[in-house]
Amino acid sequence: MSARFGLLLFVVTLAAVITGGGGWPPAARAAGIVTVTSTADTAGTCPHPGNCTLRAAIAAVNSGGASTIRFDPAIFPAAAPAVISVGSSPLPPLTADGATIDGSGSGVILRSASASLAVPHDGLRVTGPGATIRGLTFEGFSGACLQAEGANATVGSPAAPNRFHDCGVAIRVAGTAGTVAGNDISADPASLPDAIGILVSGSNVTIGGAGAARNAVEGTAVGIRVSGNTVPVANAVIEGNSFRAVSGPCVELLAGSSGTTVRGNAFEDCGSGIVVDPVTEPAPVDGNSFTGNTFAGIRGLAIDLGADGVRNPPGQPPPGPNGWVAYPAITRATPSGIEGTTCPGCRVEIYLASHTPGGQTDYGTAPLGPPVTADAIGRFSVAATVSPGQWLVALATDAEGNTSEFSRPARVGSGAVVCGNVQLLPGWNHVAYFGSSPLILGDAFPSAQSPAVTAIYKAVDGTPQYRRWLAATPAGRTLAALEPGQEYWFLATTPLTLPGGFSVSFPVPVTLQPGWNDVVYIGGSADPRDALASLEGKLLEVAKWDAATQRWRRFGDGTAPAWTAGFDLVEACATYQVQVSEAVTLQPLQP
C-alpha cells in the first residue's frame, strides 16, 4: 500500500470516528460521562458498546477519564431493572473528586453474589470527596451496601432515590458533611435480624430533610445509629425521616457522638424511639435535641436516656446521657390552659400522649404546638386546645440543647370537681361528709326527731385506732364533729341523705402513713393505676366498701390481672382504704 493511500485511509477512519460513523456509540463516550453497557462483574473495557462494566467504569473515573457514571437504558431498562451480581471480590472504591454514579432513568440493581455469610460482603465504597450516588438499588450485601467515606458525599435525592434491601448496613456515612436524602431502606428481620438502616460515623452529616428529602426505613433492627467509637462525631441532623417496623431503636446515639438534632421524624412500630447511650467515657453523649417528632406503636420508651427502658427519676447529676436533664412536670391541665414546672429558661414542648393505665411508658404522639420557654424560676404555661379526658406529656430542652425523656402523663380535667349530697344505705357506709361547715354531733344523728345513724367512726390513719360517736353510749364518744371533706364510717338503720356540696378546681393531696389509711379522693375520676400513680412503688393495696352488699371490693396494687380487680374506677369524692409501705403523699389527678 502506498504511503499516500495509507494516509488517506487514516484520515477517513478518523473522520468516521469523530462524526459517530464508527467506533463506540456517542452515549458510551460522551465528554465527562462513562456509560455502563454490561451487567457483567468483570474487568471490562470502557468505553465499549457492550463490555463497559461497572468495575471498568469506576476505574475510568478514578483515572480522570470521566466524572460521571451512567447506565445504558437499553441494557438497564427502568421498567425491568437489570442485575449486576457482585462476586466475592469487592468493587473498586470510587476515589475521584466530585464523581457521580447516576442510575436515574435506568433500572440498576447491585446484588451480592457472595456465598459467604461469615465474612461481611460490602457493596459500593466511595472514598473521594464530593461524590454523588443516586438512582441505584442495592440488595443482599451482608456488610455495608454503600459506604460513603469521603467528605461532602450525597447519597440519594428526592428525584433519584437509592433503594436498599437486606443489607447488614444499608448506608454508612463516615465522611464529614455528608447528605443522605430520599432513600428507601428495608430489610427482612428473619434473614438479617441485626440490620442497620443508616450508620453515621462522620460529623455534620444530614440525614433526610423536608418533604421528599426524607428517608424511609423499614424492617431493620436499628433505624439510624450515630456512633463515634473510633473518631468522635458531632452535629448530625436527622430530619423528616419515617421509620416503621424497626425491632430495636429507631434512632440510637452511641458513645463518641454529641450534638445530634432529631426533628420532624415519624416513628411508627419501633422497639424504642430515640435511645441515648449512658456511657460517659471518653465523653458523655449529650447536647442532643429532639423536637417536632411524632410517635406511634412504640413498644418501649419513645425517648430513653440511658438505654435502660425505664423513665429516669428526676435529680440525677451529670455527667450522663443528655446531662440527665430532668423531664418537666405538668401541674395543671384543663381546656383553658396547661401549666407546669421545669428547669429555668428551658424550652418545653407539650404532646398529646399515647396512654396506658399507670403511664409507665406513656409517650407523645404529636406536639400540640410550638415550644414555649419557662421563666427564670422554671414555670411555664401553654394555651392549647385540649379536651377533658385527654392525656398529655411534655419534653424539656435546656440551654445546652439536651432534651429530656417524656414526662409523667397528666390528664386534662374539666376544671372543677363537685362533691354533693351523699346517700347512706342501711348498714355500714364508708363515705365523706361534704357540708359547708363542721357539723357538731349531738345525742342523735341527724337529729332527735329523725335519728337514723347509731354509730360514726373516724379512722386514725396508719394505726388500728378509731375515734367514735355512739348514739346509745355518750360516755364512749371520742368524736365530737364531722369535718367537711373528711371520711367516716356511718352505721345507718334507714336510708339517709347527708346534705352538702362543695366545688374545688384543684386536686387535694392526702398525706398517707405506713399501713392502712382512709382516703377521700378529691380529684379527677380515673383508672386506679392512674388515680394512684403518685404512690408508685409504695402502694400495697386499695379497697372500696360496697354499702349495697356490705362487702369490700379490692383492686390490689395494680400489678394483678385486670379480671381480679373488684373495681376499675377511682371516683371523685368517693372514699377508699389505701395501704402503703411508707409515708407518701397521694396526689390526685386534676379535676
Automatic annotation (TrEMBL):
Stretches assigned to the Right handed beta helix domain: 123-290
Transmembrane stretches, start-end: none
Highest taxon of source: Bacteria
Any Pfam family matching the protein: Beta_helix
InterPro entries tied to this protein: Beta_helix, CSLREA_Nterm, PbH1, Pectin_lyas_fold, Pectin_lyase_fold/virulence
Protein name, per record: CSLREA domain-containing protein
Lineage start: Bacteria, Bacillati, Chloroflexota, Tepidiformia, Tepidiformales
